[in-house]
Structures are given as structure tokens and as C-alpha cells.
Design a protein that fits this description.
Layout lengths: L4 E19 L11 E18 L6 E6 L2 E2 L7 E3 L2 E7 L7 E8 L6 E10 L8 E10 L2 E4 L2 H21 L12 H8 L2 H16 L6 H19 L19 E2 L2
Antiparallel strand pairs: 1-2, 2-7, 2-10, 3-4, 3-8, 5-6, 6-7, 8-9, 10-11
């Protein structure tokens, strides 16, 4: 029988807060302009993961980021994720848990968690149970709701323009899909250029400006594909949490 690895709880304990200022006149973003004033909240996030195996007699262990760990009653650092620590609370006969905790103020980081076990009477060979990627963070920035609303409207506008004039693989995932994530990642000269190109294609006449329109579309597609094939592209979605509640941002 297959038993799941389950997230039993996720809690945050606040460690502090302070104002933050982001000047987007110096670091332009496609959909953020001017100077934003927000509030950064630092916290430790604790996630309790559970593996329960019914009446099967198993000797259970854990692998974190490819490394077997020793059961610890205190929080020890995870290999490959220095801002995340683990400990193993007291387990029952058929229930095994591991607690993961983030460092206050840290960026989001993730660990690959794997259950391993052996069976009697030889207690070998080692068998692999369920696995899961678990992401934690140690801070968020809360922005005014009206600024995030303006940003969302901007994203929707540019996403619609981009998908109208540039070929996007179908079906398009539900937001935040690749186009939204690409738009959100744009900074500096790249953001200014893409904004200008998207503004321009909206105004061009297909009959009169066909060649020019085709060149801009090709450039937009090339920029999107460069991002899509980069380490920050769509494959990075597994490392990212869902967008926070309105008025919040994990960056």
C-alpha cells in the first residue's frame, strides 16, 4: 500500500517589521513606477511534514536534498539550504514527522524531502517512499493595495497585448502563467524596451506597417524565449510560492 507524505501544519512567528522604500525610477519595472513605500515583515516559518504507514512494520528515515539525516531533537541546518533547519519530533510507531523552519529575514528557499524505509526481518534493502519539495521563506513585503491593483491591471493589459501579437504555446496556463511571470521579472532597460514595443504594436496598422510589426513581434518572441530557457524561466515555478494575499509581496 502507498502512503502519502503530508503537510500537517504551516505557521509563522513574527520576528520584526520595518518600512521599505523601492525607487522604480532607478530600477524600472514593466508595471511598477515611481517610489513605492511598503512594510517588510520578518518571521520564522515552520512546516510540519508527516508520514503515516498504517500497521506496516517499517523502520523510517529521511533524506533532505539528497543527504540522509540523523534524527535530531534540535534544529539542525539542511544541506544545500542554509536558511532552512530541520528537527525530528518524537515519533509514534506508525507516525513519523519532520519539522522544517526558515531563518527570519531570509528569501524563499526549498528542500527536496524524501521518505526512506526498510522492512523486517532483514531490514534491507532500502526502499524509497513518497517525496515532496517543500518551500519556506522568512520575510514578506506588504505594499499598498491600490499600487498592487494598478500593477495587476498593467499585467493583464500587457499579457493580452503580448498573447494577441506573439505566438504563445496553448493551452495558456492559468495566471500566474509564463507570460505574467516574464512580465514581472523585467527590470531596467529590458523593462523599458518591452513596454515601448508592446505600446507600439498596439498602435501599428497591419496593412501599412506589416513588416515593422513582424519585426517587433519577432523581437518580443525572442526576448520571451530567452527568459523561458533561462534558470529563472517556467521551470523555476516549483521553487516559488503562490502570489501572496492582496497588499503583500514575497520580494
Amino acid at each position: 500500500m502507498t502512503y502519502p507524505l503530508v503537510e500537517k501544519s504551516r505557521e509563522r512567528s513574527e520576528a520584526g517589521r520595518h518600512f521599505v522604500i523601492e525607487d522604480y525610477t532607478k530600477t524600472p519595472s514593466l508595471c511598477r513606477r515611481g517610489v513605492w513605500v511598503g512594510r517588510r515583515v520578518d518571521f520564522s516559518e515552520t512546516v510540519l511534514m508527516s508520514f503515516e504507514h498504517g500497521q506496516d512494520d517499517l523502520s523510517v528515515g529521511w533524506i533532505v536534498n539528497g543527504a540522509a539525516i540523523s534524527p535530531a531533537g534540535y534544529y539542525a541546518p539542511c544541506q544545500g539550504a542554509p536558511t532552512i533547519r530541520y528537527r525530528c519530533p518524537g515519533d509514534g510507531r506508525n507516525l513519523h514527522t519532520i519539522s522544517l523552519m526558515s531563518t527570519p529575514g531570509s528569501d524563499q528557499d526549498c528542500v527536496d524531502l524524501q521518505v526512506v524505509f526498510t522492512r523486517p526481518p532483514q531490514w534491507n534493502p532500502l526502499e524509497y517512499g513518497p517525496s515532496k519539495k517543500v518551500c519556506l521563506q522568512g520575510r514578506i513585503v506588504e505594499w499598498p493595495w491600490f499600487l498592487l491593483q494598478q500593477e495587476q491591471q498593467c499585467w493583464e493589459r500587457f499579457r493580452n497585448v503580448f498573447e494577441k501579437y506573439v505566438v504563445v504555446p496553448r493551452p495558456v496556463p492559468a495566471p500566474p502563467g509564463p507570460v505574467e511571470r516574464w512580465i514581472a521579472s523585467l527590470r531596467g532597460d529590458e523593462a523599458a524596451t518591452v513596454r515601448a514595443e508592446l505600446d507600439t504594436v498596439e498602435q501599428l496598422d497591419h496593412a501599412r506597417d506589416g513588416d515593422f510589426l513582424a519585426e517587433i513581434r519577432a523581437d518580443l518572441a525572442a526576448r520571451f524565449l530567452r527568459w523561458a530557457n533561462s534558470e529563472d524561466g517556467p521551470g523555476a515555478v516549483d521553487r516559488s510560492p503562490p502570489r501572496s494575499d492582496p497588499g503583500r509581496d514575497s520580494s
